[in-house]
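Predict the 3D structure for this chain.
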Amino acid sequence: MKKILLLPLLLIVLPGCSEKQEFEQAVLKDMQKDQDIKDYQIDPEHMTDCVVERTSGKMPGIFFGDPKRMEAYKLYTKMLGLSEAENPEKTIKELQKDFGGGRGLSIAKGKYSQSVFDCIAQMLMQYGKEEPEADEQGNAEVKEPSGAETKNPESRME
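Done. Predicted structure below.
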């Protein structure tokens, strides 16, 4: 009896895994290109985990396998791939339609951006980094707080 109940649940959840994985890959790609992430020397994979978690919590749908959530993952992935779209104008129109208008698309982009800002703040607090200082060429370098023993944030996690 339990196997019979488990099968429909798996049929709902397993396809959802691919949508979430595609969204995670799109976020990782975005984090690897983000200049703030580079300047603050934040690990893009840690940022990706944080951003995916926060953004997912703001998406429609009640639970992971919810069809609304799966559709949201697809749309957010498409939104993040806009810069690489063959026809960006067409893709924007499609996204506006899919998100219920320009306002809906703006709200979705705002939710994603807020998640990124929140995660940057969280990572900076977690690793104790200060504002990056630019050198003569304009390159930013993260200044460690006074009294910091190491510049490797990974070693502080132990």
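DSSP finds seven helices and two strands in the chain.
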